[in-house]
Design brief:
By secondary structure, the protein is mainly alpha-helical. It has three helices and no strands. The chain has helices at about 10-25, 35-60, 70-80. Helix 1 packs antiparallel against helix 2 (about 35-60).
Length: about 80
């Protein structure tokens, strides 16, 4: 695959497939310096996609913080567990 393909919009699956392919190429017996360079070249795109997914997930999931000092928060937790 050509290096310019990283500038094209890739689906998550295509990016993952390309990263796995480049990893396999670099990990094989007789890998060349070009195989390692191509593997390293894909990491900014993979990290950016991971960053985007983390931001989406952060907006979807919120963790409620409770101050567990005192009986009221524990009673609240027990009542939610009973429901």
């Amino acid at each position: 695959m050509a290096n310019d393909q990283l500038t094209l919009p890739l689906t998550d699956e295509d990016l993952l497939r390309l990263a796995r392919h480049r990893y396999a190429q670099a990990d094989r017996e007789g890998a060349t310096i070009d195989d390692y360079v191509q593997l390293v070249d894909i990491f900014p795109a993979v990290l950016q996609r991971l960053r985007e997914k983390a931001e989406i997930t952060r907006d979807l999931v919120t963790i409620k913080r409770l101050d567990l000092n005192g009986p009221e928060p524990w009673q609240h937790l027990l009542s939610e567990a009973a429901e």
